[in-house]
């Protein structure tokens, strides 16, 4: 690990300012992904700004009937919150499908959104990777790509966004609240938060330098049946090959989002409208522009079968 | 004094001594580093409690909680397996919650309360989970065991607090410490010897208490 200096920030705008003021500085919250990458020197921050004292660890009802989740709320706390279990069960299901108990106790809401891909070539400093070293090439495109993306990818990078929580948040139309170094705040729809990176796969979100997530808000509950199915190489503690998050109403309408398929949680609203016609129609629309590799083409029929299982569960 | 007493050094002490020797051989590079301008190797003071005892240290900011426990405080019960949060051998409790001590910096724990396997119970005062692991042979080589036990104790607490898991069918109903629940919740602790079924037996016994 490269040497770095460390400070604990006292307020959100101050934290943003501290990161913006030092070249190579980063925020640290739970640290479960950042420290993993720092040990491999894939991340090498010169300065860490610890945000644990900022008091952003509360879950509150919003005036609109939704929920505001402070960025420092741990995955465990969020998944166990009574209102989340009652009204946003797909979020509890998605969080509990990811990582291990130890990691969920440390991982934060904002940090989880910012986790980096688990592409094996990104994690191997001996291999070219446009995300890790821009311009060095992509070893994954003609490499072992079984785990990697089938849609929204580019000729520069076919990595996936690895998380589960954000798939449910995309389904629920969450909004990410941030503060900038100057103190300005903004609200970013989660649909716009993770970039489809094109030629710049090292830029994964729309956050500006020093801009810090302060909360994630959920709109009013949707009702309906909440289901999250994750297909992976082992039954627990593994990243998704394919995951499907859905909220399905008694009349068969609803919405659906996919994980493990793309650089960001994948949802196509026009495909949601096809839910009453069944899994095949939804998948054909949602993945109409897919460009899978021979190694990962199986993900599309797997997504269809997984969605068929989700629809069946919602009807049962 | 008999010969036997002269050699009454436990395997554990030999292992701990070995770690100390390894640390001693690492001194030259550490000295070399100390001769560099001080701003190239930032260190910081940090104070927290470990097993009820206050500790105060000056650490390289890069030092993980795991390395602090093992190398600075000589609490070698907590083990380093993968050092990347994948195996669970380093599991300890911080403020009553289990975490991977390898994925946390010591400087982030100012004022925290850390409990390691040494704090959970001692040879003459075993924690019920430690006793159950012994009774049910919940290990073979034993390397992952401290992490397994810290995790197992936490798992039962998490079920008691009503925290759901991936296999919980009814998210709003009461949580029960079933075999399926315990197995799912222990998935962050890998046992290369494959003692899982005995670990599950040990946990079930404590859960049924």
UniProtKB/TrEMBL annotation, chain A:
InterPro entries linked to this entry: CO_DH_flav_C, Diverse_Substr_Oxidored, FAD-bd_PCMH, Mopterin_DH_FAD-bd
Domain of life: Bacteria
One Pfam family per UniProt: FAD_binding_5
FAD-binding PCMH-type domain: residues covered: 1-223
Protein name, UniProt field: Xanthine dehydrogenase family protein subunit M
Automatic annotation (TrEMBL), chain B:
Region span, Disordered: 20-40
Example of a GO MF term: carboxylate reductase activity
Entry keyword annotation includes Oxidoreductase: yes
PROSITE patterns xref list: 2FE2S_FER_1, 2FE2S_FER_2, TAT
Domain 2Fe-2S ferredoxin-type per the UniProt entry, residue ranges: 44-120
The UniProt record lists the keyword Hydrolase: no
Residue ranges, compositional bias (Low complexity): 20-38
Protein name: Aldehyde dehydrogenase iron-sulfur subunit
Species name: Stakelama flava
Gene of this entry: paoA
């Amino acid at each position: 690990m490269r040497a770095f200096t460390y400070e604990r920030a006292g307020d959100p705008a101050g934290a943003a300012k501290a990161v913006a003021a030092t070249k190579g500085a980063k925020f640290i919250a739970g640290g479960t992904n950042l420290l993993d990458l720092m040990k491999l020197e894939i991340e090498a921050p010169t300065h860490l700004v610890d945000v644990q004292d900022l008091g952003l660890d509360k879950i509150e009802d919003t005036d609109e009937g939704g929920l505001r989740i402070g960025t420092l709320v741990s995955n465990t706390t969020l998944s166990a919150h009574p209102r989340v279990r009652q009204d946003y069960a797909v979020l509890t299901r998605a969080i509990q499908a990811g990582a291990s108990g130890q990691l969920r106790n440390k991982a934060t809401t904002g940090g989880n959104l910012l986790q980096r891909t688990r592409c094996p070539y990104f994690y191997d400093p001996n291999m070219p990777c446009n995300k890790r070293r821009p311009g060095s090439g992509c070893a994954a495109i003609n490499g072992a790509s079984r785990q990697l993306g089938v849609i929204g990818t580019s000729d520069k990078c076919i990595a996936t966004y690895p998380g589960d929580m954000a798939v449910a948040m995309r389904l629920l139309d969450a909004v990410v609240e941030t503060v900038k170094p100057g103190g300005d705040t903004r609200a970013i729809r989660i649909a716009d938060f993770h970039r489809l990176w094109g030629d710049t796969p090292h830029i994964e979100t729309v956050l500006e330098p020093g801009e810090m997530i302060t909360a994630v808000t959920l709109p009013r509950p949707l009702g309906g049946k909440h289901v999250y199915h994750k297909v992976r190489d082992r039954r627990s503690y593994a990243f998704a090959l394919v995951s499907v998050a859905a909220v399905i109403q008694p009349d068969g309408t609803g919405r659906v989002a996919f994980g493990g398929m793309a650089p960001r949680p994948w949802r196509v609203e026009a495909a949601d409208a096809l839910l009453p016609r069944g899994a095949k129609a939804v998948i054909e629309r949602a993945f109409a522009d897919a460009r899978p590799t021979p190694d990962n083409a199986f993900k599309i029929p797997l997504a269809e079968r997984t969605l068929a299982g989700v629809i069946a569960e919602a009807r049962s | 004094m008999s010969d036997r007493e002269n050699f009454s050094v436990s395997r554990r002490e030999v292992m701990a001594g070995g770690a100390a020797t390894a640390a001693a051989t690492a001194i030259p590079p550490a000295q070399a580093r100390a001769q560099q301008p001080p701003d190239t190797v930032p260190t910081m003071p940090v104070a927290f409690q470990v097993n009820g005892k206050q500790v105060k240290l000056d650490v390289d900011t890069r030092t993980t909680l795991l390395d602090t426990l093992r190398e600075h405080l000589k609490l070698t019960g907590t083990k380093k397996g993968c050092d990347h949060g994948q195996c669970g051998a380093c599991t300890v409790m911080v403020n009553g919650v289990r975490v991977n001590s390898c994925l946390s910096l010591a400087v982030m724990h100012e004022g925290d309360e850390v409990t390691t396997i040494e704090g959970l119970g001692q040879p003459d005062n075993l924690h019920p989970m430690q006793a159950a692991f012994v009774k049910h042979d919940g290990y073979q080589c034993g390397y992952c065991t401290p992490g397994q036990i810290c995790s197992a104790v936490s798992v039962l607490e998490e079920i008691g607090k009503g925290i759901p898991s991936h296999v919980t069918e009814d998210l709003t109903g009461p949580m029960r410490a079933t075999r399926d629940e315990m197995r799912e919740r222990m998935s962050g602790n890998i046992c290369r010897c494959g003692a899982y079924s005995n670990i599950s037996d040990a946990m079930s016994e404590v859960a049924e208490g």
